[in-house]
Amino acid sequence: MATERKKILLRLDPAVHDALTRWAADELRSTNAQIEFLLRRALLDAGRMPKDAGRMRRPGRPAKDDDGGEDTAETAGEPSGDPAGE
Q1: By C-alpha distance, which of 2, 7, 42, 38 is closest to 21?
Q2: How many domains, in total, are found in the chain?
Q3: What is the sign, positive or negative, of the torsion defined by CA atoms of 20, 21, 27, 32?
Q4: I need a surface site. Which of 18, 40, 60, 74 has the fewest CB within 10 A?
Q5: Could you give the angle at the alpha carbon of 36 between the alpha carbons of 54 and 49, nearest 5°?
Q6: Angle at 40 between CA 5 and CA 62, to 5 degrees
Q7: Is the residue at 60 inside a domain?
């Protein structure tokens, strides 16, 4: 069973948001995925990534399992050393 993802309100300077949006588009990610990618990379670099943190979802549509759910065992596993989950 998949863990529900946390939702937060994040207030950003409009110029910072625009820069993040452009960067995300360059890397074919949503702005939200780019922010999570950068936060995960910062946690890894600081040695603060929790051992029980799930992996980031891969790009594209989530795989459908036989029950019609969106998560698979592959995407719900332990994090790899790569914050992009690749």
Answers
A1: 38
A2: 1
A3: positive
A4: 60
A5: 50
A6: 45
A7: no
Please state, as a whole number, how many other Cβ atoms lie within 10 Å of the Cβ of residue 39: 12
CB-CB contact of 79 with 53 (8 Å): yes
CA distances, 57 to each of 13, 19, 46, 62 (Å)? 27, 23, 22, 8
Q: What is the pLDDT of residues 19-68, one digit of tens each?
A: 999 999 999 999 999 999 999 999 999 999 999 988 887 777 777 775 54
* Tokens standing for residue 75: 């995407």
Note the helical H segments in 1-86: 14-26, 31-45
pTM higher than 0.70 for the full model? no
Is residue 46 a part of any domain in this protein?
yes
